[in-house]
Structures are given as C-alpha cells and as structure tokens.
Model the fold of this input.
Amino acid sequence: MNEQPNLLGEFLRARRELVTPEEAGIPVRGVRRVPGLRREEVAMLAGISADYYLRLERGRDRRPSLQVLEALAGVLRLDDDTRAHLFGLAADRPRGTRRGRGRGRREAVPPSTARFVELLPVPAFVEGRHLDVLAANPLAAALSPRLITGGNRLRDVFLDPDEQSLFPDWERAAAALVAGFREAVGPDTDDPRCVELVGELSLASPLFRRLWARHDVRPRGSATVLFRHPQVGDLTLSREKLHITDTDGMMLVAFHAARGTRDAERLALLGAASAGCWHWVTESFLALVPHLMPDASVARQKCETLGVERLASNHRLSRNDL
Done:
C-alpha cells in the first residue's frame, strides 16, 4: 500500500471543482450534484479513459505521461505557475528529495543577511519557507508591529484583526499569501511545520480552510501592496521578494516607494517617527498638509504638543485642532 499523501489526486479533484461546465463547453442539462466538472467529463475532454482518470484521482496511478499532464492542464484551465505545480506533483522522485535537507530543521538566517536587513533604509524582513519572520528591521515593525522575529505571516493575516485592518482588501491579500505558501512548500505538505500551520489555521479560519482547499499556486515575487496604516494613512508600496542563496527557500522581503511621491514621504515620516526624530516628523508633517496650516509657527507648536500619533494620522487634523 502506498503511504505517501495523494497530492496529485487532491490537486486534480480540487481544480476540476473550480471549472464550470460552461467554461469547458459542456451543455448543462438538469440539476448537477457536484461543483465544477465530473470525473468522466474531465477524462473525456483530456482524451483518456474515465477509469484511468479515476485511478489518478484516487492515487492508484501517480505517474501519468507528459501528454496526459498537458491535456489535464488544458482541461483544468491552469495558468503557467499552476501548470508547473501540477508537473511537480507528478514528478517521479523519491519522497522528500525536493526539500530533504530542510525538513524538520530550524531555519537560521545567515549572519551576513541579518546584518544586511538591519542596514536597509526601507522596511525589510527575512521570510522562511513556511512564511515565518526570521529577521526584521525596525522599519518593518513600524509598518506592521507583527513584522518582528518570531512572527508568522499566515497566522498574523488570518488570526489578527489588527493585521487584517492594514489591508483594505485583506481577503485578496490572504488569498495571495496562501497561494504563495503552497508554492513554497510544494509537495512537502507532510512536513511537520506545514502540518502544524495548516491544521491550526484550518480550525481557526474558515477562509484559510477554503483557500487552502483550492490548491491555488503563485510564486512569492514582486507586487504592489496597498496598506491602510493607522498612523500615516494609505501607503502604496512596491514589494520585492528575493531568494537568499544557499538557504532552503528563504526570501528577503522589502517594501519601497518611488522617490518624490507622497508614498515615499509618508514612508519616510513613518521611519522618522519610529526612530524618535520628532523634529523631523513635525517639519515633514507640516510640508504634507499646508492647506491645514494657516499660521506656520502656531501649527508647528501645536504639532509638537500633539505627538507623532496625531501628526501621522492620515491628514485627520482639523482646523479646530490648529
């Protein structure tokens, strides 16, 4: 009996449930009892027998040919990233060889990388294969108090309301996070750390449970991220994710804004506030909201007494405050 997880079968079933008969060009007659496509419909469209497809889904055959995989990818309407994931699940290799050197071991950031993160002038942290925060600089913690060593991005986004409030469309951000996590762990979903996280979050978050069941895959890469920060307001930042060499899936994550933009000014304001540069914060805030400053000297004095929390509150000062 094959004791390995039936990852290929689970993937095929999850993805066929996401494809509607209309998308596949199949006429719908009467009431359908299953979401998406039936097994026999997938087999017909892929040009294979229904019995053979059933063996694939149930894990009795785990080595389909490249031609069969290509046909299934087409029927299931997979994009390039998800197609590559499908081929990875069906690859003929012994269990655990993909990530064998990292399974069950504690991840340790190379000392030179940790020093580099501290020196970066933008929010930056090191993300492990299971989305653990392995190192972070003070600017990262200023962007989100959860971005500190020992945190986990999945737990924070799905279980912490304060973290969710940072993202105007947090469910979309959560979906991208889960897809990146699945790409990172690949076929090693039986890794103890992965089992722990998936089990915990599946029990605590119906949204995570639903997203994990979709088997979406997305590489952890560059993106534009909108934050709704409680101190400096809306921030649209570019996010870079860079692989760290000689590690098992660690990535350097950094957020930055185009020079001279309002986002860059607010990011700099946040950085100065986190460093305790109150005079610089006051000057920067005054420059950001001249329409609220009829008398610069009075405004400056008032800003200094209000403190950074009020200074950096997304322009919420009113003329009555001044």
